[in-house]
Amino acid sequence: MESADHPYWPRSLSIPGYRPNDRSMAEILTFLFSVSGALLLGTWLLSGWAGPRLSTGRRLVLCWFSVCGFIHGVIEGWFSLFHLQIPADQHFLSQLWKEYSKGDSRYVIADNFTVCMETITAWAWGPLSVWTVYAFLQHKHYRFVLQLVVSLGQLYGDVLYFYTEYREGFSHSEKGHPLYFWFYFIFMNALWIVIPALLIVDAWHHLAAAQSHADKSKGPRQRSHID
């Protein structure tokens, strides 16, 4: 039986206390991409003069982690704290989540998996993303360890995110919808599979090269005692 009091799927979903957004989709998306764009530009400029000289590719990586810090820490942090209030709340970030939920209604019903996954993402990968930016700007020796840890966590969480919804038959979105399914649900989340996977490979190469150099710098007697 269809329900006409909300725009989410499945249409029979019960969402007690739900209030429609009073802000338009354009306002919400403009905010999201404007703040992300400002962070990208700011990090790009900062990485050009702060700390050691970085390659273009490395500066783009720092831009990515900067945006991750904002999305994980602020937007997903809001969901982690206020997931029960979101359906009835009209705060801007709650409305952002109600808009995104048109592509995945698990967020508007505080699905147990999304709450657990987003809480870990917000309070672990958010701060660590910011720390990763700092570590590269300051040329810290642990910078690629942070890149590996954060990227692996992002990749693992996103694989579970897609796989759990796949097992439910993609029932929480209008499957095939060009905006809600393909852009909100598929494209925006696929970024956190493709980019972290590339960064894991990048970190692997740098850490392996560092270990190889450390092994070669030790004499035969020292190498014989390596565990």
From TrEMBL:
Membrane-crossing residue ranges in chain numbering: 28-49, 61-84, 120-137, 144-164, 179-201
Family: Belongs to the EBP family.
One Gene Ontology molecular-function label: isomerase activity
Keywords noted in UniProt: Isomerase, Lipid biosynthesis, Lipid metabolism, Membrane, Steroid biosynthesis, Steroid metabolism, Sterol biosynthesis, Sterol metabolism, Transmembrane, Transmembrane helix
Coiled coil (residue ranges): none
Official protein name in the record: EBP isomerase
Localization of this protein: Membrane
UniProt xrefs under Pfam families: EBP (PF05241)
High-level lineage: Eukaryota, Metazoa, Chordata, Craniata, Vertebrata
Organism encoding this protein: Polyodon spathula
Alphabetical list of InterPro entries matching this protein: EBP, EXPERA
Membrane topology: Multi-pass membrane protein
Domain EXPERA: from-to ranges: 57-200
